[in-house]
Amino acid sequence: MSEPQLDREVRWRLAVLRHVEEVSGNVAMTCRYYGISRPTYYKWLHRYETEGVDGLRDRSTRPRRSPNATRADVVDKIIHLRMAGTAGE
């Protein structure tokens, strides 16, 4: 996603937060109007309160670790065996 598009997304989320504060005063109505869920609104609000505008940027959903991943030494051995198997062809 390009930087201007990220900025547009942040501005839109900030507009949603401000709509509750300045226009409607009602979270449920604002969420229906913007087509988002209330948990999403409160997630954005919490991030905005703790991190400021940077908290409204998209975050990766990639896991930080993978406890069931195959160990590196096993992967290396598999690669070695596959390469050895294709060398004779």
What does this structure look like?
This protein has 89 residues and is mostly helical. It has 4 helices and no strands. The longest helix is centred in the first third of the chain and has 22 residues, at 3-24. The radius of gyration is 23 Å and the shape is rod-shaped.
Task: Summarize this structure briefly.
The protein has helices spanning 3-24, 27-34, 38-51, 72-87. It has 89 residues and is an all-alpha fold.
Low-confidence stretches: none
Biggest sheet statistics: none
Distance between the termini: 43 Å
Q: What is the number of helical segments per DSSP (H or I, 4+ residues)? A: 4
How are the SSEs ordered, and which strands pair?
Elements lengths: L2 H22 L2 H8 L3 H14 L20 H16 L2
Helix pairs in contact: 1-2, 1-3
Q: Any descriptors?
A:
single chain; 89 residues; mainly alpha; 4 helices; 67% helix
